[in-house]
Amino acid sequence: MDSNLQKQLVIDAAKEIKKLRSQLQRQRADKHQDIAICGMSCRFPGQANNPNQFYQNVLEGKDGITEVPLSRWDNKFYYDKDRQAKGKIYTKYGGFIDRMDCFDFESFNISRKEAKAMDPQQRILLESTYHAFESAGIEPKSLTNSDVGVFTAINTFDYAFRMTRVLGQEGINAYYGIGNAMASASGRLAYTFGLKGPTLSVDTACSSSLVALHLACQSLSRGECSMVVVGGVNLMLSPELTINFCRAGMLAEDGRCKAFDISAAGYIRGEGCGVVILKTLESAEKDDSPILAVVKGSAINQDGASSGFTVPNGKAQVELIEKALKDANISAADVDYVEAHGTGTELGDPIEVNALARTYGKVHSKKNPLTIGSVKSNIGHLEAAAGLAGVIKMVQSLRYKKFLPSIHFSTPNPKIDWCNESIRVAVKAENWNKTKRYAAVSSFGFTGTNAHVVLGSYEYADNKKDPKFDPWVDKPLYAFKRIRVWFDENNQVEETKEDQSIVAYNDSNLQAMERYYQELSDAVPLANQTDGGESIDYLRFAPFREPLEGFSWLKAFQNGEVSDTEMMSIKQAQDEMKRVLYRGLCFDNIDTIADIGCGYGSDLIELASNNPSLKLHGFNISSEQVKVAQERVKSKGLNNQVTFFNRNSAEENWGQHYHLILSYQVIHHILNKVSIFRKISDHLDEGGLFVCAEILSNHSEAIHHDDSTAFFETKDFWAKELAANNLEIREAIETGREISNYLYDPHFYENLEKVKSSVSSESVHHLEGPQLLGELLRKNIAIYVLFRIQKTSFLSKEEILKTNIDLLSHRTPYQDAVYQQNGKNVSSKVSLSPEPSVITFSTADISTKEDVQEFLIELMKIVAEMEPEEIRFDEPISGFGIDSIMALEMKQSLEQSFSIKVPMTSFLEDKTLADLADSLFKDIDGKDVSITEKNNGKSEELCPVELAGKLDSMSDDEVETLYEKLFGNKR
Questions:
Q1: Which pTM was predicted?
Q2: Mean pLDDT across the stretch 597-608?
């Protein structure tokens, strides 16, 4: 065949393929596809931290609106009932979520330094997306390099306001921009989970998340991606925008969104995050994915020119609804419920409901009315996340076949066309008795961008199981180990935070502690047994030098499950720790002792038995444990020496002073540590000792785990609060490794199954706490410290603070303390140098590979803000959250300090810190950095080539002098 003819045939074929491909793409775009909602997660006001809790709250008509917490701003400073007061806020209320200042950055391989500069909205999106994947039965790690898309809604930047106010412009670092850019909200998700589909952040004001959902459905229908993450988030971290909305008169003074009611006078702001996972229905059914509901159709449009930039356009809303119904290919008569935008404003509500009357209302009747509602009445207006809050509410409503009520509605707004009662507001929960159920959700942005989504129920075939009964949909999700990562404002607002917020929490904390101790009592049946006349205290962990093969601390809660050898190991380890704590104490010189949280009284009973002259008091909030302790004292005839009180030692008066105060693993359960430290100081004799074993956060932020009433404050917090009460640390012994050895149980959940049959479900829940603590200690996220603290009022608080900081920074290893107790004098304390303003170091003392490793530890502390205990040389550098910015900082520091070239690849390609240390030592050793020349009091490092260059210009006498300096003798 002629070559020209062949060429022409190929060209014609290519054109035909291109034409057919274009036709196929148009057909795909024109083809309507139902979209399956396969998973979802949320964090909404009212403690609604998952869709089921959210559903329960709305079903019961709960109000999630509260006064503004001090973690956002201080009402005393910003609130003014005068609506015209400049710079003030005329409402005290909002819908807030808990612990927005905390983040499990390590789970996402992000450094603490970068996490601090990340908008918490990004952080909450990361955690919520992980949970949404879990609820869809998807292992997040399996998605790497997949064509999954990401559409996120976000439109506020409060954290940037806060950071700038706290740090000033000089505090802006390299992460400020990417940490607060709205584009990062979607890009961060794609980067973290390795997703390669369409990725964008959406800001159309209040309609953002519903617009994001619409765009995601369009992307799926076109075949641009196989699955989509849709998220919406909104946090109120700074008062500026709320001040702005007050100036515009948009907010309700009483903090209640009274949608559709005659008394509606504005909305209330709310915060939260919602995430849904979408697939085409065809794909979801093929993959056997859970299908919670179906997106039947959607539409978006714009108001265009209306009577005002922020005024809704009723005609545009009618057109929008008709377009969405056409896309869904269903009739308006099929839709039973509309989750309205429903902000509770005098202008917006009538325009919206009147548009519903002109579409849905005309095909409904009084006997078959359209039911409407607004979840904003429960949780406030979540702005960028509002649309998804409505979607998640309606998905749950469709799943559980319930009309969910709106609250704060009593008298219909007369400006609304109720269409002869063919439209009504849901005021109570009602059964939704239809096989095919359809609902719609509306969102309208104040700049005119509107969205309407039509949802449908999904009925499983007879051979399929409804996912609401499957464990993968509503199972307990991964419990993030959240650590406080936050910038506190150094002003009056933050200074008053402790006293005011603690009072609000105190009652609930006390009740939670009482439940915890009662459940622990139930779970510890052997705690009041004795061994050879001596009490065995199971409530305290034992420091094991090494993990004991086959040992499970959990088995200690079951009769016959622990061998005599293991029981002896526990007893010996506990006794050893007690000897370390008591060493140097002469009980002959001590008259009175108090034990905070004394458990079953084991320690006081032992001290009383060995020291007849002592008077001992035990304080415990658990009446059950006090009762057992009193019976044990009575049986041993120690009533005259030992007395127990059912008392909250953080709040109530103790009654007298003591020479010695003891506390074992109790202070971390007390939320109000300011009060307990004050009480200890008030009731401790001058020169008296406070001896305790406690758990602290080893990070710059506190770790709070409300379920187990575990509140691990930072080392800085302990140092400062102790100093404020004239309590000087005399010794801090690091025992975390030994305690983690005791808690190490690779078969924990197998052993937990054996325990479940003999204890309550709540007790089982609390038994998971020590397992989590073991992980925190093993990873050095938390530390276990044995303290000897003395009351020293004659010293200034500044002197005490300096000592406290020093000893907490140079903790004595437990092994050393044991040797010292046995009469050996050793010290393994490591000095921690302060952070320099410029990251360069003297290298004059670098002579071994170990020196290089110490150098790298100091560098990692500064660049990545890591604690020395967190730095592991056998793990990849990338595993510490070191990104390209930090790698560049380290590279520059190493090059400036050692005068060598360090390639960027040294920090990438799964290289470990050990690899980097080896490479650096080889380069440094080759340079002979120990050769130095004194120059005007400074040490100048000379490599052999540089030295040779200098020798050429030196006189013979100068060479002789240099040789003598270098090698100690003349040539």
A1: 0.59
A2: 87
pLDDT at 942: 39
pLDDT at 217 over 50: yes
Residue with tokens 């900082």: 889
| pLDDT band (50, 70, 90) for residue 484 | confident
39-49 residue pLDDT tens = 999 999 999 99
Identity of residue 77:
F
User: In terms of residues, how long is the chain?
Assistant: 971
Chain centroid to CA 51 = 18
CB atoms within 10 A of CB 928: 13
Catalytically annotated residue among 206, 225, 419, 692: 206
Gyration radius from the chain CA atoms:
33
> Residue 471, class by beta-carbon neighbours within 10 Å (0-12 exposed, 13-18 middle, 19+ buried)?
exposed
The yes-or-no answer on residue 381 being catalytic is yes
H or E segment to which residue 26 belongs: helix 3-30
Active site residue 452: no
- If one compares 266 and 959, the residue with the highest pLDDT of the two is 266
Rounded Cα–Cα distance for residues 849 and 917 (Å): 7
CB 145 within 8 A of CB 84: no
Q: DSSP for 577-600, please give it.
A: HHHHHHTT--GGG--EEEEET-TT
How does pLDDT run across 379-402, given as a tens digit for each residue?
Answer: 999 999 999 999 999 999 999 999
Tell which wins on pLDDT, 602 or 476.
602
Q: Report the pLDDT value the prediction gives residue 535, as an integer from 0 to 100.
A: 40
Could you confirm whether 692 is annotated as catalytic? no
Q: Phi/psi of residue 660, each to 5°?
A: -140, 130
Specify whether the CB–CB gap between 467 and 320 falls below 8 A.
no
b/e sequence 534-548, b meaning 16+ C-beta within 10 Å: ebbbbbbbbbbeeeb
- Which of the 8 DSSP states describes residue 54? H
List 381, 617, 659, 699, catalytic entry: 381
Q: 805 near 559, Cβ under 8 Å?
A: no
- d(Cα 73, Cα 614) in Å, to the nearest integer? 50
Q: How many CB atoms lie within 10 A of CB 747?
A: 11
Query: Residue 803 carries which side chain, given as an amino acid letter?
Result: T
**Contact predicate 658/592, CB 8 Å:** yes
Greatest C-alpha distance within the chain: 117
Set 217, 225, 246, 341: catalytic member? 341
Beta strands in 311-448 (DSSP E): 335-339, 370-373, 402-403, 423-425, 430-431, 438-444
